[in-house]
């Protein structure tokens, strides 16, 4: 019964988050459908994820390769999974082979992982994989992501040098405590402007993935098109006790 209650609670929380996201989009003069909510389900059981799916949601995110490989086959194939954690090159094949409905990798932060994903997509005969370039907008050494000064070069490499990848935009996590400041969001928006100018693409073709549970409304108001919301939908993380 507890899992049923958790699933129902998550579905209700999702509806609230979607409403808040749509209102934030309206405040910034954008259409409600201009923002995607990625329901981040790390550490959450399949039954609870299914409750959110049954509420009509189809976009989910996971941080760990093995967890996503374990969960994906137990859930409907029309889910579009986003991988949002740090991805090591040696796990790229397992991820892409194990999750046929992987829709996007949001965490490409150097040419090595871009090249590896490009080769694996080709080897598996998959359709081109959507990717975001992860930018370290806070300057913290412990954070993954390319420095803002290198985002144009990496975006250009993905778009022009990786035919099996589809450059789709930029992502940032923000501060170490998973909060962000307007400066973090502004830094990513500035990167977007530079990348679009260099690649000759409109900003609509360069998504901004920024904002999480604590700050997704502010992020949307500052241009985010993709917010990653976990605990506000699913509740606190449930890490195994040692």
From TrEMBL:
Protein name as annotated: Pyridoxal phosphate homeostasis protein
Keywords: Pyridoxal phosphate
Every Alanine racemase N-terminal domain range: 30-237
Keyword Chaperone annotated: no
InterPro entries according to UniProt: Ala_racemase_N, PyrdxlP_homeostasis
Superkingdom of the source species: Eukaryota
Entry function: Pyridoxal 5'-phosphate (PLP)-binding protein, which may be involved in intracellular homeostatic regulation of pyridoxal 5'-phosphate (PLP), the active form of vitamin B6.
GO molecular function, one term: pyridoxal phosphate binding
Family recorded in the similarity comment: Belongs to the pyridoxal phosphate-binding protein YggS/PROSC family.
Positions bearing N6-(pyridoxal phosphate)lysine: 42
Pfam families registered for this protein in UniProt: Ala_racemase_N
HAMAP family for the chain: PLP_homeostasis
């Amino acid at each position: 019964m507890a899992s049923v209650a958790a699933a129902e609670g998550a579905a209700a929380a999702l509806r609230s988050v979607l409403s808040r996201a749509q209102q934030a989009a309206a405040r910034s003069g954008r259409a409600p459908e201009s923002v995607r909510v990625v329901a981040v389900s790390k550490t959450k059981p399949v039954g609870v994820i299914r409750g959110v799916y049954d509420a009509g949601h189809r976009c989910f995110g996971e941080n760990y390769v093995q967890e996503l490989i374990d969960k994906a086959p137990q859930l409907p194939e029309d889910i579009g999974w986003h991988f949002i954690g740090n991805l090591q090159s040696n796990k790229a094949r397992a991820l892409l082979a194990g999750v046929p409905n992987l829709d996007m990798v949001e965490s490409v932060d150097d040419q090595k992982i871009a090249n590896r994903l490009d080769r694996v997509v080709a080897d598996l005969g998959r359709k081109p994989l959507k990717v975001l370039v992860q930018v370290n907008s806070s300057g913290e050494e412990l954070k993954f992501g390319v420095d803002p000064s290198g985002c144009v070069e990496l975006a250009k490499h993905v778009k022009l040098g990786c035919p099996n990848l589809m450059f789709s935009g930029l992502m940032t996590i923000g501060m170490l405590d998973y909060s962000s400041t307007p400066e973090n969001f502004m830094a990513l928006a500035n990167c977007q402007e530079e990348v679009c100018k260099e690649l000759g693409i409109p900003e609509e073709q360069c998504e901004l993935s920024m904002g999480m549970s604590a700050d997704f409304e502010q992020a949307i108001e500052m241009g985010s098109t993709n917010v990653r919301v976990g605990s506000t939908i699913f509740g606190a993380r449930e890490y195994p006790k040692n």
